[in-house]
Amino acid sequence: ETGVTQTPRHLVMGMTNKKSLKCEQHLGHNAMYWYKQSAKKPLELMFVYNFKEQTENNSVPSRFSPECPNSSHLFLHLHTLQPEDSALYLCASSQDPGTPSSYNEQFFGPGTRLTVL
Amino acid sequence: ELKVEQNPLFLSMQEGKNYTIYCNYSTTSDRLYWYRQDPGKSLESLFVLLSNGAVKQEGRLMASLDTKARLSTLHITAAVHDLSATYFCAGPWRGGADGLTFGKGTHLIIQP
User: Fold this and answer.
1) For burial by CB atoms within 10 Å, which of A61, A81, A107, B24 has the most?
2) Min CA distance, B102 vs chain A (Å)?
3) pLDDT tens digits for A2-49?
4) Chain A environment of B93 (Cβ under 8 Å)
């Protein structure tokens, strides 16, 4: 595997289900991100993990919860979602954003297409 | 928090023509990013612009950054069909080394 991988690629879930999205980066990066891309809004940053320090966009509902067990893996746990949460969820990673050489260039995975019924 | 505005949001052009996509942003930022997205695909990094006056070129695409005007441009020269895609500009979400704020994207269609 190379780059950033995401599983599953497609997910259909009911509003009462609990599911998790998985992201793995094979680039040796230290920071990972979750973004949401929907038809109605621009790409939206949800969460940042940088050296295990989490930053979140305050507009993200609590029904989304991230987990970053190590620098290579990132999860997004989903529970009691709403139909408006249907979107493409993109994971990204970057080298240590604090070093000049990284420029915080972010590399994206293929995304998980989520449909909430 | 940075705000990013792109225009136009939709552009249909003929092969061989030149055109420019504009990206304005709301607060001081020393870096600006351009990404490409093909239908049903993820985002591909095109350019990272790190300083005022920065210019980068790759093939028929050239990007520039004017931090004083808070403006970046993506210029397409002699467009070809393969450049049809959605192009996004982005800047640092909170001005630091963390996530990105994206524009709405420019949906570019290049017709033969």
Assistant:
1) A81
2) 6
3) 899 999 999 999 988 899 999 999 999 989 999 999 988 889 999 998
4) 45, 57
